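Onboarding guide, step 5: your first structure request.
Type a short instruction followed by the sequence, for example:

Predict the 3D structure of this protein.
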Amino acid sequence: IDLMLAEGLKIKVLLLPDGDDPHSFAKKHNATEFQDYIKENETDFIRFKTTILLSDLENDPIQKARAIGDIVKSISVIPKEIARSIYIKECSTRFEIEEKVLAKEVQKYINSGETTSSAVLKEQEKQKEIAVQPERKEIEPSDNLRPYEYEVIRYVAKFGMLDFLEAYDDQGKTFIANVTEYVHNELNNDGIEFKDATYRKIFNYALAAIPEYRQSLAEKQQDMERVEKMKYEEGINDIRSGLHGYENLEEKEKELNDRIKAETAQELMEFGMDYLQKRLCSDIDDDIRTTSLELVTEKHQLSKVHSKFTKIESEAERLMDALPTAIIGWKDAILQNKLKVLTEELKHTTEEDRMYQLIVEIQQLKSLQLKLSKLTGERVIIP
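The system replies with structure tokens like these:
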């Protein structure tokens, strides 16, 4: 019986009426009567053992001490400390012996290893781990996510007001979302925010500046339309004055129009970039101003020889691919952090329900990682 107790099993004893065994008793009673008899007469093994061993020993101190020792030995093999404490308390009342005396005897058996089961040893090791194990802190996002945040906020600081892609507003109407709006939508959909306080201030500044920028952009576009018209008229006059006949006029006019449109597009892009950069880099907030200067400053310059013979794609031209990739990288790093935390918890948990829950959560995160990896390199559209 002690071997079964040592494995954490709850042992109960049922005494049948004299002359009956389980088979004969079951034949005399129906199932309901049999179950009722069990409920009314079953006894916990330790209590049963106490009753049997101590019967008729009240006047024999030596035999009583031996019986108590045998009971204490059985208690010592029970793995759960709480269960042992309850039995010790009951025996203390029954034997009229102080709890600390019985507890001391139980501990002697455990320390000696004479009766200590593998289950008891595991339970003790678990309690030691709980006692000495330092509190496991979740990975602080700002510790290893900062490089990913830096890359995204750098794109916002440099290109935040530039048109990026077509999106839909709350009424389902299409509009051209700029870089800042695209980033806000991507982060907001997944409940992500900048953990770095200064990056968060810069991002909120960019969001707040959008309405005023759009008004300024509309005014700039009107001015550019007048400039385009003037450039076109002057260019046409120059073309006509330099041509003999009309054989190349249409071609020259097309070249002129394309050049003017390209110049306008370039000037509007520079206007969009300068609008936010100038405001961030001259803000009264020291953190915003200093960090923004770092974000918008080019750190690497190509040699004149290399740029002379090679068409260099600008960062603004790579933006359509680079920005979604940076955001996907950030999201993947967040998932990786969560996976580390859950995997670490799974190593230490012993509760089956929690283990199952952790395994499910880990699989879900890995599934999300797979989806993100498929998005890398693809153009991401705001739904």
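Each response can be followed by summary notes, for example: The longest strand covers residues 163-168.
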